[in-house]
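Pair request: fold both.
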Amino acid sequence: MMRYEDNSGQLGFDALLRQADDSNRQRAFERETAHLPGGMDEALPFFRSLLEKHDEAMRSADTERVFTLREEARKLALRLNDGKPGILAGENAPACVLERLTAAASGEIPLWGQAGEFVIDAAGTRAHIEMDGIFGIGCSVSFWPGFAARCVDAGKPFISETGYRSFLGLHADAIDGMTPDSFTRAVLETYAVRDLKGRLVAVDRKFLSSDA
């Protein structure tokens, strides 16, 4: 490729091309996201509405709609981040702020795509569920969001000897009418039957805490 840079520090031809490419990408991104809010105050109600639509799509097993809305959420976070990556880079990153400020109240069953935590009875045990939101790991490729299950009753059998088990990248057919609590309950019960042969395990004492 032809290169040129004189002693005055002018940009070479390849650098000018890169600069033009960057400018074109930025203009394309701005056109693509022009309908989205550009500030957090406007973004929060927009995002809450998006979560409601995503919940409806999940409950009706509308896979195409689900992934369209998740992509819309990603573009919203990118727009709030001036089109730059790092939307989940820290607690003040746009996606993290959106998720935190729209999370379900503790103990409430969240909407699909809404971060939340709640307790369920499943497979003969109680589990504290920490549900991933719409920006969760794997949500761009897996219909079902990930979640983590923690032991609630210290000293009682659980699905893991550590008192903790995460479920990420769950690939299964979309099911009409499924809710976050019914989904997590079904996953735990299936895991207990299939992987534990129907037998829960004792939680190792070293993993038990006084507030478990």
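--- second member of the pair ---
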Amino acid sequence: MSRIYSLYDAKVRFSQVIREVRDGETVTVSYRGEPVAEIRPISRVEPVSLEQRIEELKRRGEIIEPENPHFNLEPSADISGALERFLEERDDYVR
């Protein structure tokens, strides 16, 4: 169960809050009655591959598969002229 501390109480009892977190508890800090932060233990897990991390994010709904995975992300117009003008306006640009 998560303990809830007001911001003031969390500041006054910071050592106690950290002890609780070290014991595996998650502490919620509120401001004017609204939860604004969580202090929780750092999970000590083995490193995971990028593919495993992506799968975990998908499972949690934090990223989603594109509707069309073969969508063309190439620019639709030649922007080399605009880029050249932008670079020329910079003081540190050396051609």
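Observation on the second member. Strands lie at 3-6, 27-31, 34-39.
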